[in-house]
Every structure is written in structure tokens, then in C-alpha cells.
Amino acid sequence: xxxxxxxxxxxxxxxxxxxxLLVAALLSLADALVGGFRGGGGLIELLPGDHYLIxxxxxxxxxxxxxxxxxxxxxxxxxxxxxxxxxxxxxFGGSMWRGAIEVDPxxxxxxxxxxxxxxxxxxxxxxxxxxVRVWPDxxxxxxxxxxxxxRLTGVSPFVVAVAFALGGIAGMAANFLFGRLxxxxxHTHHCGEIYKLRQTERGTEITCxxxxxxxxxxxxxxxxYRPSGELLGAxxxxxxxxxxxxxxxxxxxxxxxxxxxxxxxxxxxNGSERGSSAV
Length: 279
Description:
It contains four helices and 13 strands.
């Protein structure tokens, strides 16, 4: 059994790592969602020197950018809303405008509310109200983030969630690979994991993942091992039908689900081959 013990160890480790990483990904995603609910609700947070693209519908009764009235720009011009072009809407074909909010590299911290409207006093369109918060630096912006991960690490929780998820998927793939290698190793050496135990008057009956066939017949000798390779005791095949191999352990041993049973299969070339001894 010692030859294949590494497959079991690494399969368990990979599975544990995958579970931890996927749980971390879910927690990171939850932090992102909670942060979104607690967020500023449309607040645009910028830093000095930023250039933030915006768009919106035309104000009522306007046809050109020159007709726009923009309220809320500071007197020093450190934060400016600049409409640039007019284009046709993608869905309904109405006219829209595209522009940007530009922050001067020396802008001071502050909150600004920009309103884009028409010069005729029509009702203000809520879609044309832009709440802008200027922070002095990235550290201050992170410190005021509604996301715990961003406050602690400065990284977006969505980025963290994706990184953990990719690591978890890689761990699952490794777990699957080592599981396949372990199953192939057991099959090669006429062994199988025990998945059913039953106490009887004759002893302990065990059912393992071995396939019935010409090579396996009632009366064949076998042995039971821990996955680590520790020999627990002898067993004997008592039944082989319906795709299940049933073995009997007559002596009293501490056998558990997940232990391994191996059968000594006769070899055509060497007379007999102990399938359990090579595992």
C-alpha cells in the first residue's frame, strides 16, 4: 500500500485546500454584495487627476451641447463636468450625450453635485444628477470603502473572490486527478476501498469497490489495509455477484469505511501473485 499512499494524502490535502478557497471566495463575494448595499447609491468616488466617463439623455427641449446648463461646478474649476458628443441611443434610438468628469491633479477633498439641465426651467431629470466625492488619495478612498476587504487590503472584493475561486477550482481539479490516480492504483493491484460493513456471527462482512469477474472467485484469500499501508488482517472472498465483492474478516480488527481490501489474484505466468503485497 505504501507505493500509492501519496495519492491519498495529496487528494485529501487538495480537497481541503479547495474547500477553504471556495469558502473564502463566497465570503469575499458576500463582502462585495454587502458593501454594495451599504454603498453611496450612485456616488462617484474619484481622486485628483481622475477622468471619469459619463453619459445620459438630453435634457428636455435641447438639441445640442451648447443648450446644456450645468450647475454645481466649483468656482476654481478643479472638478468639471464636460459634455463632449451627442449620439443615438442603442435601445430606443433617442438622442444621448457622452462626456466626462475631470478632476484637477491639485483638487481638494470635497463633495460636488452636478446637475445637467435645460435653460427653460423644465423638471430636473434624476438621471442627469451626478454626485461626486473627491478623496485626497487612494488610502483615504480605501479607508472609507463599505467593503471590509478593501479597507483592510486596498483590493476590490470582486478581484479577491475571483482569485480565491480560481484557486478553489484548481484545488478541485487536483483532488479529482489524485483520486483518479488512487483508483487506478487500487484497480491495478486488485484492491478497492471498503464502503459497507456488517457485523455477523461469522465475523465482519465488508463490501469493497472491486469488480467481479473470472479473476475473482469465492474462497480467494485477501487482506485489509489502512490507506496508509498498515496491514490490519486477513480476509476471504465469500461472494462475488451483482458487481459487488463481499469479503469476510473472521478475526476481530478495527476496520473502518474507507479502508482498503485487496485480493490475492492468481497469475497466469507466475502461478500466483499476491495482489495485496505489491500495493
